[in-house]
What does this fold into?
Amino acid sequence: MHDFRYVGNQLFCEGVSVDSLARKFGTPLYVYSQHTLEDHFKKLDTALASLDHHICFAMKANSNLSVMRVLANCGSGFDVVSAGELQRVIAAGGDPKKCVFAGVAKSEAEIEFALRKGIYSFNCESEPEIVRINKVAARLKKIAPIAVRVNPNVAAKTHAKITTGTYENKFGIAFEEVEAIYARANKLKNIQLRGVQMHIGSQITETTPFELSVKKVLPLVQQLKAKYALEFFSIGGGLGIVYEPALASGATSWWNSPAAKGIMTPATYAAKLLPLLQPLGLKILMEPGRFIVGNAGALVTKVEYVKRTGKKNFVIVDAAMNDLIRPAFYDAYHEIVPLKKKGGAPISSDVVGGVCESGDYFCKDRPLAKLGEGDTLALLSAGAYGFVMASTYNTRPLAAEVLVSGKNAGVVRERQKVVEIWKGEKVAAWLK
Ligand code: LLP
It folds into this structure.
């Protein structure tokens, strides 16, 4: 947990007290550390330095324009999954020519937009998609660069909802079929076979699944490279992060916290993969999302009520599952810490939001300091798949987002106004 740490008994993000941000900008509030973003990008970039490589940040993890601008300034491209995301790249000052376009459902309009903007590669997930891309490219008199997403059928041993590299999933094209598909795609006049892509899942904290899938796919990539003028092999994203308590252990950085012991780092990842990838002689693309932005963000919330039932101590906060759905959706763990350290014996607590669902919780039966109305908390490691998965369920406005750099803090997304939630809705004419 790099740049969120206690200074005395106050939680800081870089050089700014998080409590001062909560007071100034209100809660719920997403807070991001620019330094962590840059540092994590550089850690990966440096680990891969001996390879011809390019990082395409998987912006589905966090697509705030400022977050993207920070990464574009580091030299990052982007992995996009919709025309909307590509428009965001342009709005953030990124370069579409450094972007790859993934996703199983690309529409004709999306393909046309990406072609006109000069996308580096469409990462294709089915043969009908390749046929459609060829058709759109022919109409525009363009050549469309593509890669096929190979499904290596390797289990990544992560949460069922975020594993993608087996035949149980909708993603990619079965390993056994890939060669024939390249042969057929090669006959399409407006298709350029530019690369091969692979992604096995998310939040993978050990090197073995990456190593196994690369080992399995490499001979196929070599074969394809010998036949076609390929430029790249994308090894996807998926590098996991530490969600477990780091700050509670007193560590100033999660890299040196007990929770991080044994977890894959960019260095251990590179040590296993570089020797395999180096002889290939292709540019290596990577699409990390969570690794770069996960630990760079926290969701700050305020305690509204503390409610004791016969069995439980419920800490009811002003953030809810609509702001951060990961605990409700994946049973995900996020470390929860007070913005001002508290003494006293911990109490087993459930931290819950105000949405009318029993699934609306951030933790269950977790020992936390005794909390009371008005106390403020941070849910850590919420930078990835946090705000981007937020909704306005229960007509709750989207939270504000703040970026911190050193002693500077600026709003990078205004808190949504309640009336903006139903903007565009209408009462049907016959109801009036
Ligand atoms: N490349 C492809 C093709 C992907 O599908 C994904 C993520 C990534 C890269 C980036 O993966 P990462 O480096 O972030 O692990 N909402 C879930 C995670 C969904 C991941 C979807 N695909 C969560 O909150 O855990």
